[in-house]
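User: quick one, sequence for these tokens?
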């Protein structure tokens, strides 16, 4: 059963990639940076989430979970609803369509919480993966608000959209990749590498801090960006230094190396942007962030990393 679900999710990711490539040439915003951010978010919905679920699922925890199986089988339909939503103007109809994705992410979050009650899933790497599952539902909620055109607390459309993107990548992909690296290095269920512990804590703590920074406090956002940056740079040390040498497949090694070095570029830019907001001094603006940080983080870090672990799981 678990293999069937993994195959379904991989096929969904492949189909999502094809649909994303077709949709890349369809413009749904007159503002260039918004258009690019929309495309990055759709990549997360169509490709990153099914790849992450396929790579992270293992054994009876997913096979016996009704919430996970429901989420896995509903994922491509929820993603398709989001695609249709982005073809429409912001409003009630677009938001109703996006609710299908919120339902999928809600099921994933429910599974993430239930994993914490599974004795086999109480190891630290598995807890980090569970955190990623829970964070994803927050991204689903902000996606609905974005398609509705809502501006809670006076936030602009771009802030709402960026928050949705943040929880699909930093909130979901980063914890899953951290947990997968920690899982591969686990000696037994009770011992965890100190570096994995630090990385996991940084990723889990930094994600909500950056979200607060995006929406409320630039200073907190800068702190969160630095925390996540430290975590991802240490993750690169772990993956390149300890995980990659254990592998035999050159393609997987290359993908993991690309994923590991990408944050050196993307997070440096993120820190510069966060500092520019705090210091009120323009260093890098949102269009540049979307183009460089967004693309490097989405394709280099998240896509290459999850693709590598998915290839390993399929062997």
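Assistant:
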């Amino acid at each position: 059963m678990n293999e069937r679900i993994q195959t379904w999710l991989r096929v969904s990711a492949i189909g999502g990639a094809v649909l994303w490539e077709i949709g890349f040439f369809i413009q749904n915003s007159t503002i260039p940076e918004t258009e690019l951010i929309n495309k990055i978010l759709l990549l997360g919905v169509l490709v990153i989430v099914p790849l992450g679920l396929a790579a992270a699922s293992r054994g009876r925890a997913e096979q016996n979970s009704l919430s996970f199986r429901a989420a896995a089988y509903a994922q491509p339909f929820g993603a398709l609803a989001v695609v249709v939503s982005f073809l429409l103007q912001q409003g009630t109809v677009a938001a109703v369509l996006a609710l299908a994705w919120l339902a999928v992410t809600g099921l994933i979050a429910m599974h993430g919480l239930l994993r914490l009650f599974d004795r086999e899933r109480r190891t630290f790497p598995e807890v980090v993966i569970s955190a990623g599952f829970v964070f994803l539902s927050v991204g689903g909620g902000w996606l609905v608000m974005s398609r509705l055109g809502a501006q809670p607390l006076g936030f602009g459309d771009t802030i709402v959209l960026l928050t949705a993107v943040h929880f699909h990548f930093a909130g979901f992909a980063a914890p899953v990749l951290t947990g997968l690296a920690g899982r591969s290095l686990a000696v037994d269920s009770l011992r965890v590498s100190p570096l994995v512990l630090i990385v996991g804590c940084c990723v889990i703590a930094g994600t909500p801090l950056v979200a607060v920074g995006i929406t409320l406090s630039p200073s907190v956002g800068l702190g969160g960006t630095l925390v996540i940056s430290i975590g991802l740079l240490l993750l690169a040390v772990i993956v390149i230094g300890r995980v990659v040498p254990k592998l035999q497949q050159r393609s997987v090694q290359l993908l993991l190396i690309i994923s590991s070095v990408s944050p050196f570029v993307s997070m440096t830019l993120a820190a510069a942007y966060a500092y520019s907001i705090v210091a009120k001094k323009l260093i890098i603006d949102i269009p540049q962030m979307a183009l460089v940080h967004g693309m490097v983080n989405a394709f280099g870090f998240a896509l290459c990393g999850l693709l590598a672990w998915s290839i390993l799981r399929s062997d």
